[in-house]
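Researcher: Sequence recovery benchmark, item below. Answer with residues only.
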């Protein structure tokens, strides 16, 4: 009887040990403490309206410290998958202007998303991928995994640019499909720039809205024209995928 074949590198068992799950447990505890201490009450337009003078003064007096605090809060919010990243992007435009606000928001969101990706990949992504590869339908999973990895950057850009996919879902999905950290980092950094710029520009005009007493909602930011523009950019990001398919069929 021939000896059993040695498993591939990607097929080696990876158990869901406590050491692997510890970072996820820490994130869960942090989320619980966040709501237990009522910090979520600060994530609202009403809180921003009431404290805008103090915040603007803080930025004027200690620009670097204010930027550091903003990036830390934004990155932490992204890592914990809290649903206020769009609001924080508006705040960045309001406090730092559209250009600098965009830069700070992109850096913070990318850092937080990359940290979450790394934790998810180490804690669950690798073990679940190993189990899926050994399952009955491993062939289907391998083909899906290989297809995503072959065009990972294009798919990531598409998912980032289209504003219908929840941010935390796009943060986690690549971790379960074996996307390399470098591709994930580049795809996230480039893919969130257009949408972030839109929110930062709108956020830069919040001062006038607050002074006039007008009502405002996040839904008003993504107008049909903005959505169409982002969708067009997303389609452009899929050109390399379409070209590869055309080459294969032509061959």
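Model:
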């Amino acid at each position: 009887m021939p000896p059993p074949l040695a498993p591939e590198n990607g097929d080696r068992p990876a158990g869901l040990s406590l050491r692997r799950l510890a970072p996820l447990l820490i994130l869960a505890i942090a989320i619980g403490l966040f709501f237990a201490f009522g910090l979520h009450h600060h994530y609202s337009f009403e809180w921003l309206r009431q404290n805008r003078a103090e915040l603007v003064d803080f930025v004027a007096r200690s620009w670097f410290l204010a930027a550091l605090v903003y990036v830390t809060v934004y990155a932490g919010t992204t890592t914990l998958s809290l649903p206020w990243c769009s609001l924080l992007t508006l705040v960045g435009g309001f406090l730092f202007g559209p250009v600098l606000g965009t830069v700070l928001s992109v850096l913070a969101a990318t850092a937080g998303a990359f940290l979450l990706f790394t934790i998810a990949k180490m804690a669950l992504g690798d073990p679940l991928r190993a189990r899926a590869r050994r399952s009955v339908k491993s062939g289907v999973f391998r083909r899906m995994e290989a297809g995503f990895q072959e065009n990972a950057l294009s798919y990531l850009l598409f998912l980032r640019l289209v504003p219908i996919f929840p941010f935390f879902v796009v943060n986690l999905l690549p971790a379960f499909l074996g996307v390399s950290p470098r591709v994930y980092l580049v795809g996230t950094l480039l893919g969130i720039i257009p949408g972030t710029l839109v929110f930062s520009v709108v956020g830069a005009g919040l001062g006038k809205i607050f002074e006039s007493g007008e009502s405002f909602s996040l839904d008003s930011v993504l107008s049909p024209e903005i959505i169409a523009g982002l969708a067009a950019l997303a389609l452009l990001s899929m050109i390399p995928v379409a070209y590869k398919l055309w080459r294969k069929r032509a061959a």
